[in-house]
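Exercise 4. Each item below gives a protein and its sequence. For each, produce the structure-token representation.

Item: D-amino-acid oxidase (Streptomyces daqingensis).
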Amino acid sequence: MSSDLVVAGAGIVGASVAYHAARAGAAVTLVDAGRPGAGVTAQSFAWVGAAGVRTGPAAALRVTATAEYRRLEAELPGLPVTWSGSLSWDAANVPPEAGPGQEIVDGATVAALEPALRQPPERAVWAPGDGAVDPVGVTGRLVEGARAHGARFLPDTPVTAVRRDAAGRAAGVETAEGLLPAAHVVLAAGVATAALGAPLGVRVPVDPSPATLFRFRAPAGLVRTVVSNRDFDLRQVTADRLIAAADSSERALAAVRSTFRGAADVELLSARTGARPMPADGEPIVGPVAAVPGLYVAVLHAAVTLGPAVGRLVARELIDGVAEPVLAGCRLDRF
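Answer:
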């Protein structure tokens, strides 16, 4: 059965492409070596904010991040998103700077937002529109949404190669179960995208970037927002669980205990390191491959933050044949 497009990789980016393309009326096949979001997507801290990176090709994408998630919430009821806002501060002698959608708040405001802080900073950056997501849950809802619009999903089916026709055009993908023919092939397989492109003579400069997440048992309501400082990025994911992105479990645990009142009994539950894709210049690689007509790549480090936006834009480019200006700086041919 031939599809308009086959998407290789059911992380949050591939799932978003499949959902948006199927919703637009395309015949879509989504295929993955495992289960939706079970790879590096699951190892994302999953902070969604519209500020942060203010320059570079991804800046225009990032400013739409929260709006894109709110759109997706309306389309997919029950999307696991928490709009808690975020508080960020650095060392005491480093004055904070606010970007779009952010404001500088004083210590009293910080204390009201995070009552358990032992010593609120004198100044912090407050981003009330920020939130966080369950990345595996969001990916699962995207896959469900794609299937509701007619897409096929093939889990536990590794893609082994991209098939080309006699004219050199992408014609589908080879899998352990056989050929999946398609008019377009989207490679959204994270670091594996490079290996799939290499036999075609396509160089996708992306390498694994280790990222470690720590999960802690903690009192309910200890942390109310997304908290970011020089010790950790931290948020509460369930009533008695925290998740942190940090360099060391010992330092992170000590920092949590010393930063919050009532945290003496916080304990480390797990530490998992994922190999998230990192393009050579740190910016997303999104767009068609000139050397292989019909082939499209979508690989980015901030996949959870930008997944809804990228999926919508990729679907428009493939189905409507339009070149999205916001993706102009993200093309593979810049390397």
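Check: The longest strand covers residues 267-279.
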